[in-house]
Amino acid sequence: MPTTSPTCLAALAAALLLVPTAAQADVGSGLVGNTVELTGPAGTTRIYYPNRKHIIVRTPDGKQAKGWWRVKGKSICTKMPKAAKESCTDPITEPPVAGSSGEFTGGDGSVKWSVNKGKGF
C-alpha cells in the first residue's frame, strides 16, 4: 500500500477543514483535543490536535511525526518539520467539530474525513 508523507497529510487535513459545520467563535477551537481521521487510497491517517500549537500525525504504516498548526484569520495552517512552508486552508466560515465528517477529492483520489473526539491512536 502506498504511503503519503506527513507534509501531504497535513495539507489534506487543512483542506478538509473547508467543509462547513457548526459555527464557533474560532475556526480551530473544535480541533483541540480531537483527532482528524483521513481515509483514502493510501489507507487511514490520523492527526491529533493536543493543544493550540501542536499536531501529531500517524500515517497508515503506523509511523508518527510531530508538527505545528495555527489559526491565521479564518484559515487553519499546518507545518511539518521537513516542509519548506506551512499549508493553509481557504477562509473557513463554519469550523469542524467532533462528529463532523465528509469527503473531498485530493491529488490521490477520494478521501473520507471525520473529526473524532479525543486522541484516536
What does this structure look like?
- The structure is a single chain.
- The chain is mainly beta.
- Helix content is 9%, strand content 41%.
- It has 1 helix and 8 strands; from the N terminus they run αββββββββ.
- A hairpin with a 2-residue loop joins β4 (64-72) and β5 (75-79).
Features:
121 residues; eight-stranded antiparallel β-sheet; 8 strands; 41% strand; globular
Question: What's the structural blueprint in terms of helices and strands?
Answer:
Layout: H1 6-16, E1 34-40, E2 43-49, E3 54-58, E4 64-72, E5 75-79, E6 87-88, E7 101-106, E8 109-117
Antiparallel strand pairs: 1-2, 1-8, 2-3, 3-4, 4-5, 5-6, 7-8
User: Regions with pLDDT < 50 over 5+ consecutive residues?
Assistant: 19-24
Distance between the termini: 20 Å
The string of secondary-structure elements, in order, is HEEEEEEEE
Tally of helical segments:
1
Average pLDDT value? 83
Strand order of the largest sheet: 6-5-4-3-2-1-8-7
Beta-strand residue fraction:
35-45%
The portion of residues assigned to helices is under 10%
Report the radius of gyration as a whole number of Å: 13 Å
Largest sheet: 8 strands, antiparallel
Overall outline: globular
Number of E-state strands: 8
* Secondary-structure content class: mainly beta
